[in-house]
C-alpha cells in the first residue's frame, strides 16, 4: 500500500508533470492544478544533460523526447571575433550502462507537451484555469484552496509552481529567489548545419554567448550580460538589441542575426536567480519541488534536471512507503537538499567568475568536472 492514494500537483512544468506521471502509473489518483487556461511553456529551447535524459527513460518518455529534440555529445568552445575560431571540442561519450547520449537540446514547448500527454495517458487529471491560492494542513490530509472554493482534501500536495511559487508562500516559507545581477537573452532560430552541439563563446561584448541545437532545423541562441530591465520591450526592439549585442561574435551567429533581422525568431529575456530553501521542503503534507524549492543560473544547464530528480525521488519514496511519516521526509531531504544546493552553488560560482574579470581558466574545468561526477550518480 502506498503512502498517498490521492495527490494534488500544482503546476504543469517539468517537475510537476514528471511527478504526475510516476504517481498515476503507480495507481495514485492525481489532480494537477494549472493557473493558466492552457498548456504554456516559458522560454524557447532547453539544454538537457545526461541525468535529465536518464530521468526521461525512467519516465518512459525518452524516445519521444529524442525524436522531438537534438541529441549530441559534449560541447564546443569558440573565441569571440568575426571568424569565431573553434578552440576546443569536448566529448563525453554515451552513458556506459544506458547508452544514452551525454546531452540534448529541444524546444521547451515540445518537452512540456510530451510530459503532459504522458501524464494524461497515465491517468492524471489536469485542471486548467484553477489557481491554487492557499492550503490547510490537517492531521491526516492537506486541503487545497482555490480562488473561488476548496478543491478538497488530499493525502499529499506537491507544489511545482515555479520560482514565484504560491504554494511555497502558503506554506509559510519566506526563502525565495534572489537576483544574481546577470540576465540572459534567448532567441529561437534556425540551425546552421555546422552547429552539432552546444557551443560557447566566453568574453567579447557579453559574458557568455552561445547556442544549442534543438532539432534538425532549429536551435536557440543566447547572450548573458549584466541584468537590465528589458521585459517591456517590443519584439522588434528586442530583436534589434540582440543583433547589436551579438555583433562581436561571428560564425553561426551570422545566421542568428539574419533570422532576427527577417523577423523569423522568437526572443525572450529573463534574469538569473538563485535560491535553495534551507532545511525541509515540506510543511505537514505539502511539499515543494523544482524551481519552487531551488533555482540557479543556467550556466551548468541543470535546472530542469534537478527538478526531474526531485520528482522521481519523491514519487519513488511515496510509492514505496505505507505512511506519510517523518522517515519518508527524512529520506527525501537526505537525497535531495544537499545535492540540489551543490548544483546551485556551482552554477552561481561559474556565473560570478564571469563577472569578476579575473582569470579562472584553470578553475572552470575543475568545477565542471566535479558537477559531472556528481550528477553521473543517480540521485
Task: Please outline what is shown here.
34% of the residues lie in helices and 28% in strands. The chain contains ten helices and 20 strands.
**Uncertain runs with pLDDT below 50, 5 residues or more?**
none
* Architecture per CATH nomenclature, i.e. the level-2 architecture of the largest domain: 3-Layer(bba) Sandwich
Mind telling me the CATH class of the largest domain?
Alpha Beta
Largest sheet: 8 strands, mixed
* CATH level-3 fold name of the largest domain: FAD/NAD(P)-binding domain
* Content of β-strand: 25-35%
Return Rg in Å.
21 Å
Q: What is the count of DSSP helices, taking H or I runs of 4+ residues? A: 10
Compute the average pLDDT.
93
Neighbour order of strands in the largest sheet: 6-5-14-15-16-13-17-20
Number of domains: 2
Amino acid at each position: 500500500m502506498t503512502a498517498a492514494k490521492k495527490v494534488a500537483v500544482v503546476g504543469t512544468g517539468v517537475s510537476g508533470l514528471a511527478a504526475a506521471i510516476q504517481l498515476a502509473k503507480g495507481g495514485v489518483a492525481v489532480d494537477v492544478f494549472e493557473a493558466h487556461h492552457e498548456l504554456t511553456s516559458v522560454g524557447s529551447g532547453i539544454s538537457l544533460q545526461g541525468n535529465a535524459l536518464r530521468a526521461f527513460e525512467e519516465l518512459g518518455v525518452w524516445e519521444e523526447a529524442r525524436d522531438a529534440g537534438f541529441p549530441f555529445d559534449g560541447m564546443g568552445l569558440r573565441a569571440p571575433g568575426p571568424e569565431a575560431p573553434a578552440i576546443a571540442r569536448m566529448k563525453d561519450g554515451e552513458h556506459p550502462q544506458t547508452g544514452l547520449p551525454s546531452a540534448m537540446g529541444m524546444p521547451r514547448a515540445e518537452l512540456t507537451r510530451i510530459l503532459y500527454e504522458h501524464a494524461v495517458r497515465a491517468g492524471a487529471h489536469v485542471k486548467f484555469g484553477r489557481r491554487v491560492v492557499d492550503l490547510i494542513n490537517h492531521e491526516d490530509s492537506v486541503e487545497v484552496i482555490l480562488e473561488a472554493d476548496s478543491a478538497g482534501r488530499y493525502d499529499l500536495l506537491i507544489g511545482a509552481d515555479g520560482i514565484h511559487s504560491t504554494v511555497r508562500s502558503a506554506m509559510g516559507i519566506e526563502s525565495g529567489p534572489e537576483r544574481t545581477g546577470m540576465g540572459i537573452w534567448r532567441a529561437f532560430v534556425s540551425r546552421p548545419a555546422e552547429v552539432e552541439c552546444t557551443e560557447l563563446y566566453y568574453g567579447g561584448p557579453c559574458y557568455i554567448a552561445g547556442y544549442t541545437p534543438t532539432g534538425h532545423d532549429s536551435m536557440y541562441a543566447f547572450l548573458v550580460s549584466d541584468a537590465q530591465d528589458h521585459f517591456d520591450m517590443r519584439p522588434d526592439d528586442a530583436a534589434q538589441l540582440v543583433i547589436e549585442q551579438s555583433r562581436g561574435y561571428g560564425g553561426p551567429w551570422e545566421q542568428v542575426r539574419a533570422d532576427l533581422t527577417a523577423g523569423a525568431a522568437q526572443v525572450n529575456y529573463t534574469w538569473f536567480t538563485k535560491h535553495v530553501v534551507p532545511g525541509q521542503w515540506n510543511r505537514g503534507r505539502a511539499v515543494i519541488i523544482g524551481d519552487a524549492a531551488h533555482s540557479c543560473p543556467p550556466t551548468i544547464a541543470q535546472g530542469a534536471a534537478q527538478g526531474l530528480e526531485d520528482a522521481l525521488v519523491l514519487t519513488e519514496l511515496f510509492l514505496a512507503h505505507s505512511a506519510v511519516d517523518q522517515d519518508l521526509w527524512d529520506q527525501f531531504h537526505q537525497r535531495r537538499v544537499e545535492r540540489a544546493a551543490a548544483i546551485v552553488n556551482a552554477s552561481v560560482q561559474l556565473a560570478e567568475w564571469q563577472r569578476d574579470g579575473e582569470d579562472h581558466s584553470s578553475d572552470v574545468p575543475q568545477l565542471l568536472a566535479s558537477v559531472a561526477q556528481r550528477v553521473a550518480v543517480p540521485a
